User: What shape does this take?
Amino acid sequence: MISEKHFRLGAIVLAAALIAGAAGVMAQSPEAAGHALLWQAAGTRSNPAAPQTLVWAIPGQEPLGSVDLPQAGTRALPCGPGAVSPDGSSAILFVGAETGGLYRVSLDGPGDPVRWGDAQVLACNGRGRAAFSPDGGRWAYLQYQLGETAGPFADGVLRVLNAADGSEAARFENAVAFKLLDNGLYYAQFFTNAQGLADEVVLTWWDGAQQREVLALNPAANCNWRSVALDVHASSGAVLLSLGEQCAGGSQWRLFRLGADNALTEHAYLPSGGGYLPWAYINQVYFLPGGQQAIAVYPQGRAGNVGNLVLVDLPSNTVTLITQEVTVDAFPDGNAGHLLFSPAGDALAYVSTTANGAETLHRLTLDGRLEPVDIPAGSGGDVISTYFFRPNGDLLYVAGGANGADNSLFRLPAGADQPERVGRGKFLRNNGLAGPDTALVMEQVPPDDSHRDPAANLVAFDLRAGTRTVVVEGRSAGAFAYPLAWFQPPAEE
Assistant: This one.
């Protein structure tokens, strides 16, 4: 255990490291460059310990400040892909282990975290289980109970909070999916029979004051519902419902569209290769911008968190395979494989894996095309261990070895089909953050004659100059720093 005195000395070392690198990482002013929010903890990334701190850091300069976290955890992470408020000023963080607290944290400068509730980390895995409304006025999440992943499906209490102060605006029981809009929300509930199996799914609209049941669907004979995902088209108001059905002969994937005129159309009823498991985010559906097509993921069958990615043409009721064996988020780890949308929402990044372990990174332009850019991880045993977008749409990723082995950080420019190497290292899994001109990744420092355990440095790459700087030196600080979110000041009008 690292003492409080040692850890506070580590904070001084962090400040010194940031100041020492000032000339090498950022040539812009702090106001233009923005800054990162970091989770700094004693111990190692695989075994974090108290004390734990949030640090607001400009790479290459003195930290803006830090605050102690109200509780310690084995993980601190943004609660889902929609964790950052639409205006970019704050984020909802999960801090804990499999269960923990949800905190609203300022991104534009140091401030004490405000606890908004309790959660199981399942709520923060995958997209759609926690999200802000588009205007940032509300935030909602599914509050699961312990043991939810052991049953036939996962349901919870849907809590809708006012973003101004975290007060509860509404709560709904037995919720399995929702879509939060500016003027209300759609949510789906499962209702069960005497055997505890879902024999009805109900879609309800809440306008901020009143609830109205919109649709109720029963499964086919000798079947029960296991999973639901939903999306709403921003312009037309149409709703997509993607339903997983468990039957005596296997699983089925069913896709319904509810039009603004309340006309219901079933667009897909296909066998799925595997089951709908409550611990894997294996059922996903998203409208493409025009509203005439959608992309969806349903089980492929080789593993519980492996699915097929398909394009659905709604007018023609056709389903076309884009990529098979796509990996998705899984409880409790999350981020092991996920669908990642670009900041502009015009591209999708994801990873597929074969039965012999070969991994490929894909970037799909969301304009109805069926041909993604495919980038193999490398030779046998190599993996895609981290991938994240730059604000301009460039895709950054780490390919090569994992768990302390040699690998490289690459950049795939937006619109390009050939990557560029940014730098070599021993970069760790499931981390990475980019501002306009800076990329932050964690790099393992192997054990040596003087140190029994590995450490982790936080490294900053200047994506314009091609230089790299150690922002937090793990050995000196006696801690690691995990990148959580980037704050970019609004452009001056």
Remarks:
- The chain has four helices and 35 strands.
- The helical segments are 4-20, 22-25, 30-33, 474-477.
- The first helix runs from residue 4 to 20.
- The two ends are 50 Å apart (CA to CA).
